Amino acid sequence: MNPHLIIIGGGAAGIFCAVNAARLCPGLKVTVIEKSAKLLAKVKVSGGGRCNVTHDLFEADAFSRQYPRGERFVRKAFYQFFATDTIQWFEERGVSLHNESDGRIFPTTNDSQTIIDCLLKEANKFDVSFLMQTEVKNIVRHEQWQLTLKDNDTLNADFICIATGGSPKKDGYNWLASLGHSIIDPVPSLFTFQLPDHPIRSLMGVSVKNVSVKIMGEKLKENGPLLITHWGFSGPVILRLSAWGARMLQEKQYHFTIVVNWLQDMKEEQLKSLFLQQRQENGAKKIHSGCPFELPSRLWIYFLNTIGIEEDLRWADLTIKQQQALTQLLIAGEYIVAGKTTFKEEFVTAGGIDLRQINPATMESKLHEGLFFAGEVMDVDGITGGFNFQHAWTSGMIVAASVAARLNTTA
User: Fold this and answer.
1) If you compute the radius of gyration of the chain from its CA atoms, what whole number of angstroms results?
2) CA pair distance 185, 379, nearest whole angstrom
3) For residues 51 and 110, what is the distance between their CA atoms, to the nearest angstrom?
4) CATH 3.50.50.60 domain residues, the chain
5) Fold of the domain built from segment(s) 4-187+350-410
6) Which of 22, 111, 242, 346 has the fewest CB atoms within 10 Å around its CB?
7) DSSP secondary-structure letter at 339?
8) What is the per-residue pLDDT across 328-383, written as a single tens digit (0 to 9) for each?
9) 380 phi and psi, to 5 degrees?
10) Could you tell me if 117 and 21 are in contact, meaning their C-beta atoms sit under 8 angstroms apart?
């Protein structure tokens, strides 16, 4: 009888593991069990439907520093399968990729379906089997692994790969904890900030390319693009901040104050000099007529209206008090955050299987031979920008290679 690998979870990590295990081990039976009715659901919606495959930070140490949890673990793994290998893998299968200015890498079609079609084509090529809308209730080890399904049917396997993704609640890991694995409490990561009733929300759709955002009273600070939404603030700078502060912000119950420098890292003295320059060179011009900084006009007018600067006021007539108020809004604006909003396309969980119980060289459990993990079910999460998908590809490939090596050794 052919050896059997069962992969629990039909997301990026699980499918990538499945197709590569089947490719590397022609005699291996590979089955993917998926709880829902859809495969690769997060791939489909990620990156605004374009799928941010990976990132062009092509240095393993620098790449691994983009993971708030799991940095050392993924660094070791990346020496086996890295972003450059991901690009090569997809391009060898006819998927052309392109880099964007911020380092994110997408299929040139800008359509996540391209990635899905590639993976499912590989699955079909290598006879990967799928059990859809099937839930695993329990796993035990006898001579083989035995899985009990929700309808009490059982399946046997020589190898198990857990690739179920994150769970919002710790009890979602109970079936894994029963195997003796420790669970790091899950908390949300990559979420946006709610600003209830704040008037700046009227500017929904306005984005600023280079903003600095700091959590008041904490050392946590990030730079990058910010998007104003109908509920508050979003964009890469907010998502990164939420990732690095996931546990701390959860402890604050998502009630805290942020300080925004809309001119990124500009200091008060620098801004004072720029105001003086405006007075000297453009004294006769109306302040409302144009923003001297790289800010959207709607945001500039909002700031002017907030402090009561009238439409016909000239730069030469700007009072010191008005200048100080404008300075405060531009480089040290305070915003009270009260709640979070899940960013559906990027949402990940911080927490999961304790990495101390997993071998990063094989992704195999240190407690049970033949039990492997891939993807977000582990206590690994990256910031936005393709880093979470790279962890999925890397861990999935390592599991596949580990199973192949085990079978080749025993053959």
Assistant:
1) 25
2) 9
3) 8
4) 4-187+350-410
5) FAD/NAD(P)-binding domain (3.50.50)
6) 111
7) -
8) 999 999 999 999 987 555 568 999 999 999 999 999 999 999 999 999 999 999 99
9) -130, 130
10) no
